[in-house]
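Input.
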Amino acid sequence: MTERPLILVTNDDGVLAPGLAALAEVAAKLGDTVVVAPESERSGSSHAITLHAHLRATPLRERWYAVAGSPVDCVYLGSLHLCPRLPDLVLSGVNPGYNLGTDVFYSGTVGAAAEGYLRGAKAMAVSTDRDVDPTAVREIVHRIAQRLLQSDEHLLWNVNIPPGAGRRADDVEVTRLGHRAYKETVEERRDLMGRPYYWIGGPPEPGEHEPGEDTYAVQHGRISLTPLELDITARDLDKTRRILFPEA
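Output.
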């Protein structure tokens, strides 16, 4: 009898997030499932890992855990201890809000998927518009995840699903990362004692996007699927050599 694939499901929005439940439903149709997610929201945590404090994993029900840590902690702990074996696939999401362009460097959703990839699993991060009910994207996520599971390749995919997309198979576009502009702001406020505190970061701003970019695809109502690689070495090493050794 062929062993069913093992799928680890996580997110950065917390173990009670509706998107996590929707993704766990998808995973259950594809294989055996273990859910390991942060006990509270950890959005923007990128690839943070806890190395100088202990972690607690609280069982909520069978194969479903809340971890007092980051999304990456969840995948590391889940893959190496809470799962009965190393997972074949890590699914992260469904995030309420897109992770496009340079968002991938900040996103805990993408960070968790990347950690699954580092642990040897195929991995996929899934995000959609904030106003979309995550249950509405289950069918398209199922189709894409099924294709990923069937592949012999070791892959990391970042998927963004705009409202209404996914009714046709060709709604999915393979893209590269675009540029997502945000209002750059620091807002200073005062607490009741008169001491300053700060809110940083602003909302997305309109920008120009080019065909082939994930931002362009989503802007035009198509699902973007961006294959990611974790080697961020500059492609042109000679540029740095010329700066360091101008007389060589």
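The chain has a mean pLDDT of 94.
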